[in-house]
C-alpha cells in the first residue's frame, strides 16, 4: 500500500469519526427524549413489595389494542392472578387442567361466561371497556382472578419484587401514575401519584388482608 | 339395595376421569382408602356394646389391643348433567358399618352461573347439614385430624338431610353473606345416641341404611321403662309424618373471619314408634367460627346446644328429656407437606326427666393432637393421639367405673384416587 493511499484512508477514517461523534452528539439526546423508561415499585405500608399491582400512566398517545394475551386455567387457579391490558385487547382462556372450568364475570366492564372443556380449544374475549373485571369459576368457588382494562398503552404489572417498568415515555415529563390492586382499600381500589420519567418511583398502598387460600388444588379437597 | 349399588360401582369403575371435549353428561370418580393401625384403650367402645367414647376400644376381657383395619374405603361419583346440574354419590365400605356397602351422601345440585352479586344453589337428596367446619376433605374427612370433634362425630352419625336445601349468597365489598334453609323427612331417631350413649369422638360417618349399636343400658333392657326399643339406632328412619327443617346464616368477612349460625329442628312427634325405633324431638343451635390467626395458624371453633326428648308419661312429661351441649377449639398450622393440629373438646348431657332407670347425665373433655404428612401426591399419613376423660353415672349399672379415661393412638395411611 502506497503512503498516499495510507494518508487517504486515515483522512477518511477521521472524517467518519467526526461524523460519528457529531451524529452521536446530535441524535442521542433526541433518542433519550423519546424513549425513557420508568420503574415504579409498589409497596405496602410496611415497605414490603406488592406483586400483581397494575401501574398505568394517563396522558400518552391514543390507546391501541395490545397483542392478544393469555389467562390460563391451571391447578384450579387463574394464571396470572391479575392481568392488565389496554382497551380493545383480546384475551385467550386456555384450560390446562384435566377437568372443566366454568369461568364467569358479572363486572360492569365486561360480563361473560366461558365453558372451558380444555384440550386444544381456544376461546377468546375482547375487552373494549376500561375497568376492573373480577372472574370466578362456578365449579370451583375458590378460584378468583382479575383483569384490569385501562385506556392507555402505558401500563405494567408489578413482579415479585413489586416493580413494573413502563417504556416509551417522554424524558423528563411528569405523569400521573395510577396504581390498582384487588385488595387496595377504597371503593375504586386505585391510588394516584405524580411521577417523572427517567426516575424511578415508589408508591405505597394500603392493602386489605389476603384471605384467599393458597393457590392450587389439593387432592384431599372435598368441595365437590 | 345391593344389586343397584354393584351396578353403580361397576359403572364407576369403567368410567375414567373426565376427558377434554367430552359432551355431558359425564361422571368423575374420586375416592380414598384408609388403612389404620390402632393402639386402643382397654375401655370397651360403644361400637362393641360398651360405653366407651372412641371408635376402637378394648376387647371383651377389658384389655387394650393393637388392631389393623381398613377404616374406610370410599368412592365418590360426581356426575355432571349440564353446566348447571351436577350430583354427588358417596359410597362407603368400613369394617364396622351394618351394611357391607352403604351410601353416605347422594344428592342432586343445581347451581346456575351467577349473573349478579347474588349466587343461588339448591340441593335435593341425602346430605349432611352444613354444620361441620372440620370435615372439608373428600368423603367428609378432616384435613386436620383422623377423629372428628364430639359435635361433628354426632353430625356424621345421626344427622342427615333427606330433603331439599336452598342457599342464596351475596358478595359485598368486605364480606360474603349467605342464608340457607332446608326441609327434610326422616331423621326422626336423631338424638337417641346423645341420650343413651352420650357424646363420642370418632370418624365413622353413617350410611343411609346404618344401624348403630346401643349398650345394654337398663332402660332399654327387658323390663326397662323403654324396653320396646331395639338395641340399635337407625338414624335415618322415617317414623312420623312431620317435616323437619333448618335455617342458617354465614357471614364471611375478609378480616374478621367466618361465622355461621344454624338452627335445626327435626320436628319429630316424640310419641311416634314404628315397632322398634322411636321418634325423638331434637332441636339445637349450632355456631361455628373460622379464621386465620397471625403466623398462619388456622382457628376453628364450634359449639352446639340443644334438647332431645321422647315418649310421654302422665304429669311428669317426657320419658326422656335431655339437654346437651358441646364446644371445641382446634388450632392447626401447615408447614409445606406437614400439618400439626391440636383440639380441645368439652361435652355434656343434662338429664331433665324423672325416669328412674334412665340415667343419661354425662360430662367430659377430650384432647386431640395430630400430625399429617403428605409424602407423595395423593397419599397422606396421619399420626394421632386422642385422650377422652368422661364421667357417666349409668356406667355403674354395667359394672364399669363411672369415670373413664381413654387414650387411643392411631396411624392412618390414606391413598386417594
Descriptive keywords:
heterodimer; A: 224 residues; mainly beta; Immunoglobulin-like; 5-stranded mixed sheet; 4-stranded antiparallel sheet; 1 helix; B: 417 residues; Porin; 16-stranded antiparallel beta barrel; two-stranded antiparallel ribbon; 6% helix; disordered N terminus
Descriptive account of the structure:
The complex is a heterodimer of chains A (224) and B (417). Chain A has 224 residues and is mainly beta. Chain A folds into two domains: 1-34; 36-204, Sandwich (Immunoglobulin-like), CATH 2.60.40. Helix content of chain A is 14%, strand content 40%. Chain A has one helix and 17 strands. Chain A has one helix at residues 3-34; strands spanning 36-43, 54-57, 69-70, 72-74, 77-79, 82-86, 89-92, 101-107, 110-116, 124-127, 131-137, 144-150, 155-157, 163-169, 174-180, 190-196, 201-204. In chain A, the strands form five sheets. A five-stranded mixed beta sheet of chain A has the order 6-12-11-8-9, with no helix packed on it. Chain A has a four-stranded antiparallel beta sheet with strand order 13-2-15-16, with no helix packed on it. In chain A, strand 11 and strand 12 form a beta hairpin. The longest helix of chain A is centred in the N-terminal third of the chain and has 32 residues, at 3-34. Chain A is globular and about 85 Å long. Chain B has 417 residues and is mainly β. In chain B, strand 12 and strand 13 form a beta hairpin. Chain B has a 16-stranded antiparallel barrel. In chain B, strands 8-9 form a two-stranded antiparallel ribbon. Chain B is built from three helices and 18 strands. Residues 1-21 of chain B have low confidence and may be disordered. Chain B has a single domain (33-416), classed as Porin (Beta Barrel). Chain B is globular and about 60 Å long.
Amino acid at each position: 500500500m502506497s503512503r498516499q493511499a495510507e494518508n487517504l484512508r486515515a483522512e477518511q477514517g477521521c472524517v467518519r469519526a467526526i461524523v460519528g461523534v457529531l451524529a452521536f452528539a446530535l441524535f442521542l439526546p433526541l433518542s433519550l427524549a423519546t424513549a425513557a423508561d420508568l420503574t415504579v415499585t409498589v409497596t405496602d405500608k410496611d415497605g414490603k413489595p406488592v406483586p400483581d399491582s397494575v401501574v398505568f400512566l394517563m396522558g400518552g398517545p391514543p390507546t391501541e389494542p395490545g397483542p392478544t394475551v393469555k389467562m390460563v386455567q391451571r391447578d384450579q387457579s387463574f394464571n396470572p392472578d391479575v392481568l392488565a391490558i389496554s382497551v380493545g385487547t383480546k384475551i385467550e382462556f386456555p384450560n390446562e387442567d384435566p377437568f372443566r372450568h366454568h369461568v364467569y364475570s358479572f363486572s360492569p366492564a365486561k360480563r361473560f361466561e366461558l365453558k372451558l372443556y380444555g384440550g386444544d380449544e381456544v376461546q377468546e374475549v375482547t375487552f373494549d371497556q376500561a375497568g376492573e373485571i373480577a372472574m370466578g369459576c362456578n365449579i370451583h368457588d375458590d378460584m378468583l382472578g382479575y383483569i384490569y382494562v385501562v385506556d392507555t398503552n402505558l401500563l405494567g404489572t408489578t413482579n415479585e419484587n413489586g416493580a413494573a417498568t413502563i417504556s416509551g415515555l417522554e424524558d423528563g415529563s411528569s405523569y400521573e401514575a395510577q396504581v390498582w390492586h384487588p385488595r387496595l382499600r377504597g371503593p375504586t381500589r386505585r391510588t394516584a401519584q405524580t411521577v417523572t420519567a427517567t426516575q424511578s418511583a415508589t408508591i405505597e398502598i394500603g392493602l386489605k388482608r389476603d384471605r384467599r387460600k393458597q393457590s392450587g388444588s389439593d387432592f384431599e379437597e372435598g368441595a365437590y | 339395595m345391593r344389586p343397584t349399588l354393584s351396578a353403580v360401582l361397576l359403572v364407576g369403575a369403567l368410567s375414567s376421569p373426565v376427558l377434554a371435549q367430552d359432551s355431558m353428561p359425564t361422571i368423575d370418580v374420586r375416592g380414598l382408602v384408609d388403612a389404620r393401625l390402632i393402639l386402643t384403650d382397654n375401655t370397651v367402645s360403644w361400637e362393641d356394646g360398651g360405653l366407651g367414647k372412641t371408635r376402637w376400644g378394648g376387647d371383651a376381657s377389658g384389655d387394650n389391643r393393637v388392631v389393623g383395619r381398613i377404616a374406610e374405603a370410599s368412592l365418590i361419583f360426581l356426575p355432571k348433567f349440564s353446566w348447571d346440574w351436577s350430583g354427588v354419590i358417596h359410597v362407603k365400605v368400613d369394617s364396622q358399618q351394618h351394611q357391607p356397602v352403604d351410601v353416605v351422601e347422594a344428592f342432586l345440585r343445581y347451581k346456575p352461573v351467577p349473573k349478579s352479586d347474588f349466587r343461588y344453589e339448591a340441593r335435593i337428596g341425602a346430605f349432611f347439614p352444613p354444620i361441620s367446619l372440620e370435615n372439608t376433605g373428600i368423603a367428609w374427612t378432616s384435613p386436620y385430624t383422623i377423629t372428628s370433634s364430639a359435635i361433628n362425630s354426632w353430625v356424621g352419625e345421626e344427622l342427615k338431610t333427606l330433603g331439599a336445601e336452598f342457599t342464596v349468597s351475596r358478595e359485598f365489598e368486605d364480606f360474603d353473606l349467605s342464608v340457607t334453609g332446608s326441609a327434610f323427612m326422616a331423621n326422626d331417631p336423631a338424638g337417641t345416641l346423645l341420650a343413651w350413649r352420650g357424646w363420642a369422638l370418632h370418624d365413622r360417618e353413617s350410611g343411609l341404611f346404618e344401624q348403630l349399636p346401643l349398650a345394654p343400658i337398663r332402660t332399654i333392657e327387658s323390663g326397662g321403662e323403654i324396653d320396646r326399643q331395639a338395641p340399635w339406632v337407625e338414624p335415618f328412619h322415617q317414623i312420623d309424618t312431620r317435616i323437619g327443617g333448618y335455617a342458617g346464616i354465614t357471614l364471611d368477612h375478609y378480616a374478621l373471619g367466618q361465622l355461621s349460625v344454624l338452627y335445626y329442628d327435626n320436628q319429630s312427634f316424640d310419641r311416634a314408634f314404628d315397632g322398634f325405633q322411636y321418634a325423638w324431638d331434637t332441636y339445637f343451635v349450632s355456631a361455628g367460627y373460622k379464621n386465620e390467626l397471625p403466623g398462619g395458624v388456622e382457628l376453628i371453633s364450634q359449639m352446639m346446644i340443644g334438647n332431645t326428648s321422647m315418649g310421654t308419661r302422665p304429669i311428669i312429661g317426657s320419658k326422656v328429656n335431655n339437654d346437651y351441649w358441646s364446644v371445641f377449639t382446634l388450632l392447626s398450622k401447615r408447614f409445606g407437606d406437614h400439618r400439626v393440629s391440636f383440639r380441645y373438646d368439652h361435652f355434656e348431657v343434662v338429664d331433665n326427666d324423672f325416669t328412674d332407670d334412665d340415667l343419661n347425665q354425662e360430662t367430659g373433655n377430650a384432647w386431640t393432637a395430630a400430625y399429617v404428612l403428605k409424602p407423595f401426591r395423593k397419599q397422606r399419613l396421619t399420626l394421632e393421639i386422642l385422650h377422652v376423660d368422661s364421667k357417666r353415672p349409668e356406667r355403674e349399672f354395667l359394672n364399669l367405673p363411672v369415670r373413664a379415661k381413654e387414650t387411643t393412638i392411631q396411624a392412618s395411611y390414606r391413598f386417594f384416587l
